[in-house]
Amino acid sequence: MASAETGGDKYRSFMHGEGEKNTVWRHGAPPNYDVVNKLFEEERTKEWPEGSLEEKVQRLLKTWEMEMIHKVRPDDQKSVHSQGFTASTNGMKPLTRKEWTAIGGYNAFLATKLPPEHRIYDPDEETVDSGMSTFLTAFPRGFAIEVLDVYSGPPRVAFKFRHWGYMEGPFKGHPPHGQRVEFFGVCIFHVDEEMKVEKAEYFYERGNFLASFLSAPAAAAATSASGCPVMRGN
Predict the structure, then answer these.
(1) Shortest CA distance to 204 belongs to which of 89, 84, 40?
(2) 3-state percent helix, strand, coil for the chain, nearest multiple of 5
(3) Is the pLDDT of residue 233 over 50?
(4) How many CB atoms lie within 10 A of CB 138?
(5) Closest CA to 191 of 49, 77, 60, 2
(6) Which CATH number fits domain 50-222: 3.10.450.50, 3.90.190.20, 3.30.70.360, 3.40.50.720?
(7) Segment 72-85, tens digit of pLDDT
(8) By C-alpha distance, which of 112, 116, 109 is closest to 132?
(9) Which listed residue, of 106, 182, 207, 227, carries a Cα 20 to 30 Å from 124's Cα?
(10) What is the pTM of this model?
(11) Alpha helix (H) ranges present in 46-180?
């Protein structure tokens, strides 16, 4: 995994430079992560040494998410293996690179077997752009992610992660409550000798995450002492 390019992003690779001159970006240019990087730096709980396994895995995770969301052509996605790549969430049907890119990262990540009438967010009714717009609106400062622990190294990289943001905008008709919304999960990246992802398996509690958008988390409303932003729910 390449390190940060000159003039590029500090935490993601394959965004700038000669290797990206022909890349087709979803919105015409590489995304700017300055705002979410600021949130990440202010509130991360781990600061991994450059070159450590944890830092490399965190860079790979951030790069993979960036490429899957913002690079239109699967062949432009350099963090994943070109042949046979799949990604799955909570043991559901694995998706190919083409399938994941076509429906969008948010919709793929929030796939569910719940009946439509019980869905707070229905990925089957969203497009790539509408899904992205929903979360960009809810999280004006972005949706930061960090690696908390790495349990095993290549070729099966198992790690724990934390994803968080502040609901300072509306979400699917629900008014903003201004509190932190976060979830924790475990992921397994199956990687090749170049640290390119061949298969990604995500596991996390989808229901509690989405329930956090419905109202201010109970702990935050009562007291800030606990710091727990996740409302138990559907």
Answers:
(1) 89
(2) 30, 20, 45
(3) no
(4) 20
(5) 60
(6) 3.10.450.50
(7) 998 999 999 878 89
(8) 109
(9) 182
(10) 0.87
(11) 53-70, 97-103, 105-109, 128-138
Tell me which H or E stretch contains 35. helix 34-43
Q: Report how far residue 223's alpha carbon sits from residue 164's, in angstroms, rounded to the nearest whole number.
A: 19
pLDDT band at 166 (very low <50, low <70, confident <90, very high): very high
Q: Which helix (H) or strand (E) holds 222?
A: helix 218-222
CA distance 136 to 141: 8
Take residue 160 and report the two structure tokens written for it: 């724990």
Which amino acid is it at 38? K
DSSP 132: H
Q: How many helices (H) and strands (E) does the chain have?
A: 7, 6
Tens digit of each residue's pLDDT (9 = 90 or more) over 81-133: 878 899 999 999 999 988 998 999 999 999 999 999 999 999 999 999 999 99
Residue 16, judged by CB atoms within 10 A of its CB (0-12, 13-18, 19+), counts as: middle
Q: Is 125 left (phi over 0), alpha (psi -120 to 50) or beta?
A: alpha
- DSSP, collapsed to helix, strand or coil, labels residue 16 as coil
Domain boundaries, the chain: 50-222
